[in-house]
Design brief:
The complex is a heterodimer. By secondary structure, chain A is an alpha/beta fold. In chain A, strands 1-10-7-4-2-3 form a 6-stranded parallel β-sheet, with helices on both faces. In chain A, strands 8-5-6-9 form a 4-stranded mixed β-sheet, with helices on both faces. In chain A, helix 34 links the parallel strand 19 and strand 20. In chain A, helix 27 crosses helix 30. The longest helix of chain A has 22 residues. Chain A starts with a helix and ends with a strand. Chain B is α/β, with parallel strands linked by helices. Chain B has a single domain, classed as NagB/RpiA/CoA transferase-like (Rossmann fold). Chain B has 4 helices and 11 strands; from the N terminus they run αβαββββαββαββββ. In chain B, the strands form 3 sheets. A 5-stranded parallel β-sheet of chain B has the order 1-11-6-3-2. Chain B is globular. The two termini of chain B are 13 Å apart. Classes of the chains: A alpha/beta, B alpha/beta. Chains A and B meet through helix 2, helix 8, helix 10, helix 11 and helix 12 of A and helix 3, helix 4, strand 8 and strand 9 of B.
Chain lengths: 711, 163
């Protein structure tokens, strides 16, 4: 089944939709509560640092761990790949004449498809985590790393239980279902000869593993049977308890929004076991490589091995929330799933699912290990683009059009003419594009304007305004061709405040669309060309953008893609330090605006505003609009635009947009402000399509109508 | 003294948030509870050692057990129990109702405060230490919080205030 078909199937799954939507809403609240009073960014930086190991360093931690537990008679084994790990585990089970094996939840065992292998060997593994057990008896796979059965309803679970146990089950009584699982699974702990667990943490200094659960099944699995097998990836090694506690503090908060999980179990070596003939537990540790060790020395993939498997990158991902983990990931799920699939599993499969990232950076922002997941995904897209070639139509756009300003300009000019018969009565929007299917018709698209921003800049003699206070404005494609007025209004405002505004001689795309779609080469050429037209950073107080995605590209990608060009890199660095958005600039320069109207205003935070440029203007807006400012619920959640994402996955894009529109309606605001032309395009298009009367505007458009307060 | 009470209050607040039932009491009150409590299993340090009681643990589990916690962590409402003793470990897992006794003076503020105890306990050849925060729970069916899936359905914490 193609990915687009799978996506469509999931978009039609109403149960999945409501389960994931409810969870995402509750999660955000619980997580925020659990983190209140803590410096999340400091804590995650500590985790990042404490897990920053090279391959050699991990191997020496492993040796230390090994010698610590061997002292108490345990066996420590290295498994190079999935097949050898499976064989080692099956051999141990056979050696101890096991029939039943109790397992507590382990993503690593999913990675090596352990159950399939054990069953083929005639062994009987029983999953004891409730969610995993439901899926095992239903013959399904997890759709979330922490909440494996999140896609199922109570009614579906009741049916699965009825079929398996033969008992009649009230489909609404969750409590009863949990009791059935308790009773049914309890006897397996006592029947089983072997218990298999994973480990969230392996501490080298003492040879102790830490296992985090809520149900208590890992405790029973590691206690009752006489044999305990611990399957653990090398990347779970940390130096000491001090580093382990840092993980324990953030893992549950990030996973489920709990302050701490019910059980954190610390086990070292071979403990007393009444079922063992020696009176001591037979304990085995299987350390799994399966490609991990070599990636520890990889320039951009090594960070993925800092993952503590909390699943927050799925919890906050707007695209995951629409399609779930059976599509958004493979064995590992969420943003980290897209990455680990590339590293540990089928690369072609990975290439496909990488396209599901909308690029909103919510995962990077929320990761408790400080992994910049979105940036890794972007680098992987570039890698995949080089290896498997990208969609030829896109490739043409990035390499032949966006990179070449004159070609792009001519193409947009042609578009502004041929779109004429399609325009609606306002001329601001296109009625419907005949080449697009109904699925794409969830929003009104803006028209290409007859005059570009650069032309209007000259025409209005903006270039004649001189001042000692100078700023540079980079308009970006959206302002240049679709929303020139956002640019002219900002220039007017800044000139009123006494600033000279300069713009590039020639407008070139920022390069982000090419990079995000995997065309790194075109992205790099576009960036180099851009730097030529950017003013000398020494001369300007700030480099302003009205599109935070362009701003983020200038701030991050310009440096990243000019590493081999020393003077361009230096210029990028200087510009990066001066890139800013309008409200941030006004705020820092103490320019205040006066609002006399009584229209209610709300604000949508563009993804790359808060998470790219690092400034959210809510306080500035509260100060400006006073009681007329109404905060928007989930303001910083993506609007579903994501550039070409909205064309590639219109169903996901419109689904995300509809949630945004619901929240906007709830504010009862008259005007929705935002900081990004792409968000304006998406949200305004959606509201107009649904005939909802809320005006959407860029900050620059409304700010220019207000008077500047005299200091 | 003020600081101990701050930790105590924080511990109780965090514990009750996860359905642990906390009672602050004197040693003599606990002795009465031990006498009248119908426990299946009692494993406590001095001065409660004389109340010790053993039982057999099978898949049918037991009704009530009571054990010591070495420490409690206020930040998270967590009880830290050295569970190397297998009987005690089983008691904390298969009892319907688990009671845990901790001294007020052993309530620490943060996870970090427990590190030296962890280092010391794991310096021996083997160790099994449990952090327990509330009764066993799951939310695996429709994210609905349900108490008592594999472990105790009830967790009671007795905090002894006199030394």
């Amino acid at each position: 089944m193609s990915i687009k078909t799978k996506v469509k199937e999931k978009l039609n799954d109403k149960i999945l939709y409501s389960n994931l939507k409810t969870f995402a809403e509750n999660y955000k609240v619980s997580r925020a509560n659990a983190l209140s009073g803590l410096d999340f960014f400091k804590l995650r930086h500590d985790i990042y640092k404490s897990k920053d190991f090279t391959k050699d360093e991990i191997l020496s931690l492993f040796e230390e761990f090994k010698s610590n537990v061997e002292k108490s008679g345990c066996t420590v084994l290295h498994a190079e790949d999935a097949a050898s790990a499976n064989k080692l585990i099956a051999d141990i089970c056979k050696k101890h004449s096991a029939e039943y094996i109790v397992k507590s939840k382990s993503m690593t065992s999913e990675e090596i498809k352990l159950n399939d292998y054990l069953e083929k060997q005639g062994l009987k593994p029983v999953e004891t985590d409730l969610g995993e057990w439901i899926l095992q008896i239903a013959g399904e796979h997890p759709s979330h790393m922490v909440m494996p059965a999140i896609h199922k309803t109570r009614q579906q679970v009741a049916k699965v239980f009825e079929k398996h146990t033969g008992e009649k089950i009230d489909p609404d009584d969750i409590n009863k279902m949990v009791k059935i699982a308790r009773k049914y699974l309890r006897e397996f702990y006592f029947k089983a000869k072997v218990g298999i667990t994973g480990a969230n943490i392996a501490i080298s200094s003492s040879g102790t593993i830490g296992i985090v659960t809520n149900e208590g099944n890992a405790r029973l699995s590691s206690t009752v049977p006489p044999v305990h097998i611990v399957l653990v990836g090398y990347e779970k090694l940390v130096k000491n308890f001090s580093d382990a506690m840092k993980i324990i503090r953030l893992l549950p908060k990030s996973a489920t929004g709990q302050n701490i999980s019910t059980y954190v179990t610390w086990i070292k070596g071979s403990n007393p076991s009444f079922k063992s003939e020696t009176g001591k537990k037979h304990t085995y540790y299987i350390f799994l490589d399966n490609g991990r060790l070599s990636f520890l020395d990889h320039p951009f993939l090594k960070d993925a091995l800092k993952c503590i498997r909390c699943g927050s990158c799925a919890n906050v991902c707007p695209a995951y929330e629409m399609v779930g983990g059976h599509v958004f990931g493979d064995i590992y799920i969420g943003a980290i799933g897209l990455i680990l699939t590339s590293m540990l599993h089928d690369e072609k499969k990975a290439k496909e699912i990488l396209s599901l990232c909308i690029g909103c950076k919510a995962c990077s922002y929320n990761c408790p290990a400080g992994i910049d997941l979105q940036s890794i995904i972007s680098d992987l897209n570039v890698y995949m683009g080089q290896k498997y070639s990208i969609n030829p139509a896109k490739k043409f756009v990035y390499s032949a059009v966006l990179k070449n300003p004159s070609v792009f300009k001519s193409a947009m000019k042609v578009a502004s003419i041929i779109q004429k018969p399609l325009l609606d009565e306002t001329k601001e929007n296109i009625g419907k594009l005949p080449i697009l299917s109904d699925e794409h018709n969830f929003r009104k698209l803006p028209s290409v304007k007859e005059k570009t921003f650069s032309q209007m800049f000259k025409q209005n003699n903006f270039d004649k305004f001189n001042s000692s206070k100078k700023v540079f404005f980079y308009p970006g494609c959206a302002v240049e061709y679709f929303f020139p007025e956002m640019g002219t209004k900002m220039v007017q405002l800044l000139q009123k405040a006494g600033f000279q505004v300069d713009i590039p001689d020639t407008q070139v795309c920022c390069g982000l669309p090419a990079i995000h779609s995997g065309d790194g080469k075109s992205g790099k050429k576009t960036i180099l060309k851009n730097l030529k037209y950017m003013g000398n950073p020494e001369e300007y107080e700030a480099f302003l953008v009205l599109c935070p995605s362009c701003g983020m590209a200038i701030k991050e990608d310009f440096k990243k893609y000019t590493l081999e060009y020393i003077s361009e890199f230096k210029k990028s660095e200087k510009i990066a330090n001066k890139v800013t958005s309008l409200a941030d600039f006004l705020n820092k320069n103490n320019i205040r605006l006066k609002y006399d109207d009584n229209k209610k205003i709300t604000y949508h935070t563009p993804c790359h505003q808060g998470r790219g440029l690092g400034f959210v203007p809510e306080d500035f807006l509260k100060e400006t609009f006073g009681e007329n400012f109404i905060p928007l619920k989930d303001s910083n959640v993506c609007c579903g635009f994501g550039g070409s994402f909205s064309v590639e996955y219109p169903g996901i894009s419109s689904g995300i947009l509809n949630k945004k529109i619901e929240n906007i309606k709830d504010t009862k605001a008259d005007i929705l402000l935002t900081d990004c032309p792409g968000c304006v395009m998406q949200i305004d298009g959606g509201l107009k399509k649904q005939n909802i009367n809320v005006k959407v505007a860029h900050l620059s458009e409304i700010f220019n109508e207000l008077d500047i307060e005299k200091n | 003294m003020i600081s101990i009470d701050t930790e105590l209050n924080k511990f109780i607040e965090k514990s009750e948030a996860v359905q642990t039932k906390c009672t602050v009491l004197k040693k003599d009150d606990l002795k009465t509870i031990l006498k009248d409590g119908n426990f299946d299993y009692i494993k406590l340090n001095t001065p409660f050692k004389t109340y010790s009681k053993d039982c057999e643990f099978t898949e049918s589990g037991v009704s009530k057990s009571i054990v010591n916690a070495d420490f409690a962590i206020a930040e998270t409402g967590t009880l830290v129990i050295n569970s190397e003793n297998e009987q005690l470990r089983l008691a904390t897992m298969v009892s319907e109702s688990l009671s845990v006794v901790v001294y007020k003076s052993n309530i620490v503020s943060k996870l970090e405060n427990i590190i030296s105890f962890m280092n010391e306990s794991t310096s021996r050849e083997n160790a099994y230490i449990a952090f327990i925060t509330g009764p066993s729970r799951t939310a695996d069916i429709e994210r609905v919080l349900t108490i008592g899936v594999h472990g105790p359905v009830e967790l009671i914490c007795y905090i002894i205030e006199d030394l």
